[in-house]
Task: structure prediction
Amino acid sequence: MDKIPTIEELQAMAGRELYRVTSPPVSLSDIRKHAIAVYWPEKPPRRFWDEDYARKTSNAGVVAPEDFNPFAWPIEGPGRLPNGVDLPEMARTFNGGSEAEYFSPIRPGDAIMAVETMADAFMRTGRSGRLLICVSEVKWTNQRNEPVKNLRGTRVVVLPD
Amino acid sequence: MAELYFEDVSVGQEVPTFQRTTDLMYWNRFAAVNDEFVPVHMDDEFAKSRGEKGVLAMGHLSFAHLHNMLRDWIGDSGQIKRVACQYRGINYKDDTITSRGQVVKTYSEGEQNLVDLEIRVENQRGEIITPGTATVALPSRK
Result:
């Protein structure tokens, strides 16, 4: 995309599926690396990396931190979630917010499908000027079609003067 | 991990904080697990060209720290049910950011014992850069 979509174009996309993608199977090592990164420089909780310990917890095994991203390092995009609408590379954007609801935990071996839909788009004037705000919803399910996470992400686009 | 029970929680209770001082190496480690190799998080000159005073942290890192704070508090048997936050301020390089939370409601719904919280991330000047809310489910002693 070489131009920022108009508010009318974005609002017309409400309810439309933007994309769907399935992650490669999650490994114990993926979970361990994520936990190390977000707890650095302290050691992460054992529930995220020690199978013997985790087996004795209520989850009966290692589970991923709720904010774990199984879509990192895609062979081909999109990988980072929420992606929202396609925007020009030079558009000035920032992450406005995240809202996540959690269901089944992610375990080693799970493959997660994400389906993103456009939820809302509106304009606002803020400290940075005129803002175009895009809200998307992403539903994650596992290979048993169990709900894993519902994520509502807000992407803010600063419109040029 | 220490376990937290529903009966041990009351409205107004503060959650133990989760604090980190973050820099470019810290952000790179997070970028590697969240696929956030984005110029504004990596390249000072690029960030300045966008009107920032320098590179800035990913919003999702604050989101992760809020989860860590909740997980460290509730232990292995508690469940994080919902977390929401707004990225209103910026975590610049070398800022010390602290995640905080306070219980605002305790209630039972079906068989679940739930706790609602107001949560936030503050910088070293006490400015709230990421306000939010969360709900956790806790086991009961009964």
Q: What stands out?
A: Chain A touches chain B at residues 30, 33-34, 36-40, 45-47, 57-59, 65-67, 69, 71-74, 79-80, 92, 94-102, 152, 154 (CB under 8 Å). The two ends of chain A are 20 Å apart (CA to CA). The mean pLDDT of chain A is 89. The helical segments of chain A are 7-12, 28-39, 51-55.
